[in-house]
Design a protein that fits this description.
By secondary structure, the protein is of the alpha/beta class. It has a single domain (about 5-120), classed as 2-Layer Sandwich (Transcription Regulator spoIIAA). Helices cover about 40% and strands about 30% of the residues. The protein contains 4 helices and 8 strands. It has helices at about 30-45, 65-70, 85-100, 110-120; strands at about 5, 10-15, 15-20, 25-30, 50-55, 60, 75-85, 105-110. Strands 1-2-3-5-7-8 form a 6-stranded mixed beta sheet, sandwiched between helices. A two-stranded parallel ribbon has the order 4-6. β7 (about 75-85), α3 and β8 (about 105-110) form a beta-alpha-beta unit. α1 runs parallel beside α2 (about 65-70).
Amino acid sequence: MNSVKNDYIEFWLENGILFSKFREGVEIDVERMKGVVRLREEISNGENQCWLYDLGNVKFITKEARDYADKYGQNYLKVVAVIVDSHITKFIYNTYIKLKKPIMPFLVFTNREKAVEWLRDKR
C-alpha cells in the first residue's frame, strides 16, 4: 500500500518516510481526527513510521481533536516532524512540545527539506 486518503487528508510512503497533507481550508474536529488516526494506522501496517505531516492547509484543530490525537494517535510512530506556515506558529508549537515532553522525537518546521533531513537523521 503506497497511499490512502479520504476527503480531507492523504497519506503516502516515500523513501521510508510517511507523508501526509490536508485538503485546503480543512477544519479538524474529533471525528475527523479519528479518521486521521485510523488512516495513518492503516498505512503504517503495524510498523513504526517516521511521519512528516503538513498543517499548512488546516484552518483549525479543535481542542477535543488535539486531546484525542494526544491520547490515541501515538501508535506506530517513532519520530514526527510537522510543517507549519509561520515562524510564530513553529515557535509556539515547539515551546509546547518541550513542555509536554512527547514519547518520541517531535519537532515543528517551516521548511519541508529541513524536516525531511531531520527525520532521516532520526531514523
